[in-house]
Amino acid sequence: MNAPPLSRWHLNEAVRTVRGGGILAYPTEAVYGLGCDPDNAEAVLRLLAIKQRPLDLGLILIASDIAQLRPYIGSLESTLLRRIEATWPGPVTWLVPARPRTPIWLRGRHDSIAVRVTAHPLAAALCTALGQALVSTSANRHGRPPARTALQVRRRLGDVIELVISGATGAQLRPTEIRDARNGRVVRPA
After folding, report:
1. Are 91 and 30 in contact (CB under 8 A)?
2. In this structure, which topology does domain 8-188 adopt according to CATH?
3. Cα–Cα distance between 126 and 131 in angstroms, integer?
4. Strand partners, 60
5. CA 118/CA 100 separation, integer angstroms
6. Residue 69: how many CB atoms within 10 A of its CB?
7. How many Å apart are CA 95 and CA 24, to the nearest integer?
8. Helices (H), the chain
9. CA–CA distance, 35 with 135 (Å, rounded to integer)
10. Whole-number pLDDT of residue 164
11. What is the phi-psi region of residue 17: left when phi exceeds 0, alpha when psi lies from -120 to 50, beta otherwise?
């Protein structure tokens, strides 16, 4: 994946957008994602409303480093952690136990949370600039095909997204694989 780096201006705009409670769209390993501050309930609920996605399904958090995910995940046995870390950074999302205080707007009806250390350079740069994890859900209305370009995001979601970061998605044809860390089962194949 040879995506050009984001300019300092774009990174600053993305940070301002997220910290201001806004929603941004950005390329990921397979599709465009919608993101916001995972700790901002109002932003997450607005994102869910834009997608027309039920709260109880839960969301994915991406990060540039596992340390950014630690505030949301419960304790993991060392063998399990090694298995997860062996796939990161990369296009594998893991369902891991959520900390008890992880907000319902992130985990939905589950006692787990979906997390990934992204391999996409632009998405990782966003998380690094923010210094935190970012909500990452496909840029589409619930049940509709995800956007794969910035132009598709703008056409399908209009002006409800504060910032769209242009860039190439990764080479994956489908959204990232999701595995359940507790039993190793593939919940969503890649």
Report:
1. yes
2. DHBP synthase (3.90.870)
3. 8
4. 114, 136
5. 24
6. 22
7. 24
8. 8-19, 41-51, 78-85, 104-107, 121-130, 150-157
9. 5
10. 95
11. alpha
Q: What is the distance between the alpha carbons of residues 78 and 93, in angstroms, rounded to a whole number?
A: 18
pLDDT tier, 182 (very low <50, low <70, confident <90, very high otherwise): confident
Residue 23, helix vs strand vs coil:
coil
| SS3 of residue 13 by DSSP | helix
Q: Of how many residues is the chain composed?
A: 190
CB 169 within 8 A of CB 27: yes
Cβ contact 21:159 at 8 Å: no
Q: Answer whether 29's CB lies under 8 Å from 120's CB.
A: yes
Mean pLDDT of 39-57: 96
What 3-state class would DSSP assign to 177?
Answer: strand
Side chain identity at residue 3, one-letter code? A
Structure tokens at 174: 């489908």
Instruction: Give yes or no for residue 105 having a pLDDT over 60.
Output: yes
Minimal CA–CA distance to 74: which of 106, 108, 97?
Answer: 97
Is the four-CA dihedral 117, 120, 122, 123 of positive or negative sign?
Answer: negative
Partners of residue 63 on adjacent β-strands = 117
Q: Using CA atoms, how far apart are residues 89 and 98, in angstroms rounded to an integer?
A: 20
Per-domain residue ranges of the chain: 8-188
Q: What is the CA radius of gyration of the chain?
A: 15
Beta bridge partners of 74: none
Q: Which residue has the tokens 């397979």?
A: 30
